[in-house]
Amino acid sequence: MTASPFGSTLSVGGFVAASEAGLRPLQQVQGSSIVSLGRQQNPSRRMRGALAPQKMEGVFGSTQVYYPRGSLTAQEYLNEGGWVELEERTAAYNSARTGALARLRKAAAEAGAFAVVDVRVRSGRFEQAVRAIEFTAIGTAVASDRFESDDALPLTSLSGGELWKLLAAGAWPIGLVGGTSVVYVVAGLRTKYARFRLSRRSLRNQEYEDYTNGLVAARRRAMGRLNREARAAEATGVLGIKVGRERREQQDENLLVTVDVLGTAIVRVERAAPIDVQAAIDLGAS
Predict the structure, then answer these.
(1) pLDDT band for position 77 (cuts 50, 70, 90)
(2) Which of 49, 58, 166, 169 is the most buried (most CB within 10 A)?
(3) pLDDT tens across 208-230, in order?
(4) Distance of alpha carbon 248 from alpha carbon 244, whole angstroms
């Protein structure tokens, strides 16, 4: 009786390269997490209310304008807009990613795997439920006849060929690190006027600075979380970082931006793995 065939996310070139590196595919493994989003009030009205100037009657009937403490300038804010990170939604996305990867690692451990390679993560809204998000991680569990490790079972998004070259260069994958940030962008009057197609401002090239600043802020915060996870794992670097983003327009030209990043944390080892890398030249993309 022959053994059951294995399933794998590896390409042909990736399978050959992994075999040459001493990695034997066992089976395809998967981990998922579906998280319901709690209710969080959009900050547009709250932010505008906090920064808008207030008119106060003077002693002799004159009108005075009061600007709340801690704000820049109400008019500057109203013209340029602003952004704020939705902390509850951000925490839900990061929790879902962590849960999906934990289940992927558990499934690989139950299969007797040495590591999981070619991990692919898909994230987005869960259509079967209202206000729910889904993270699903799929990869190939592999065993090794050449390497031994006392560390936790590593996960990597690198393909078989890339992993082969990494081991030959004297580095070792220690796991996937990532981060997500959900930012709500409040469109200012300049952006609203520029998007109004009957205005003169809409007829010339221009940058929507509100949207740009919100997207940049979301990316920086997501990368900051990835860096903190890498430092906690004592990694020397992160390879293969992939950036995903989702944009959803809200009412009043406001924007909801979600940025998630994921990469493979690595450490240097004392000596390179004994692999002949010359054969990797003809493999191409794997």
Answers:
(1) low
(2) 166
(3) 888 888 899 999 999 999 999 99
(4) 14
Whether 217 contacts 159, CB under 8 Å: no
Q: pLDDT tens across 232-264, in order?
A: 989 999 998 999 888 888 777 888 899 999 999
Q: How far apart are CA 213 and CA 14, in angstroms?
A: 39
- Tens of pLDDT along 131-166? 788 889 999 998 877 666 555 688 889 887 788 788
Backbone torsions φ then ψ of 137, nearest 5 degrees: -115, 130
- Residues 59, 60, 61, 63: is their CA dihedral positive or negative? negative
Q: Where are the beta strands (DSSP E) in 217-254?
A: 237-249
Give the model's confidence band at 42: pLDDT under 50 very low, under 70 low, under 90 confident, else very high: low
Nearest to 175 by CA among 139, 211, 125: 139
Residue given tokens 């409040």 in the structure block: 186
DSSP characters over 98-162: HHHHHHHHHHHHHTT-SEEEEEEEEEEE-TTSTTEEEEEEEEEEEEESS----S---B----HHH
Taken in order 122, 123, 125, 129, is the CA torsion positive or negative? positive
Q: Residue 151's pLDDT is what?
A: 58
C-alpha distances out from residue 17 to 14, 81, 126, Å: 5, 51, 36
Give, in order, the Cα–Cα distances in Å from 285 to each of 10, 11, 158, 163, 281: 11, 9, 12, 12, 10
Domain residue ranges in the chain: 12-271
What end-to-end distance do the CA atoms of the chain give, in Å? 32
